[in-house]
Amino acid sequence: MTPNHSNNFCCGGGGGFLQSGYKDERLEFGKIKDDQIQATKAGYCIAGCHNCHAQIHELSEHYGGHYGVVHLWTIICLSLGILGPNERTYLNDDLKEVNVFHPETAMM
């Protein structure tokens, strides 16, 4: 993403703004971050904190980005094969079944 590192843009959900009640203003400010994410054409955005995750997920839906937003721990657990079926809410169809044990299809 550009800009990045210390010049990156805030998602607009931090500092209590996510729960402030100013939804229209929060989404308007967050458009900067959504535009930045959509410019990458990435299928997913990995968020490091819950506020960013909630805000960016809402931005994706509001502005039609349709990119997935996942917590960092979700990707780590998925790569280790320990992400449970009930922890896949924010995964798109391409990852929902990755490393999921299905006893009905397992060899006996």
TrEMBL record:
Residues 4-56 form the Cysteine-rich domain. Transmembrane segments: none annotated. It catalyses: a quinone + succinate = fumarate + a quinol. One of its GO terms (molecular function) is succinate dehydrogenase (quinone) activity. It comes from the Bacteria. Keywords: 4Fe-4S, Electron transport, Iron, Iron-sulfur, Metal-binding, Oxidoreductase, Transport. Its cofactor is [4Fe-4S] cluster. This is Fe-S oxidoreductase. The lineage of its organism: Bacteria, Pseudomonadati, Thermodesulfobacteriota, Desulfobacteria, Desulfobacterales.
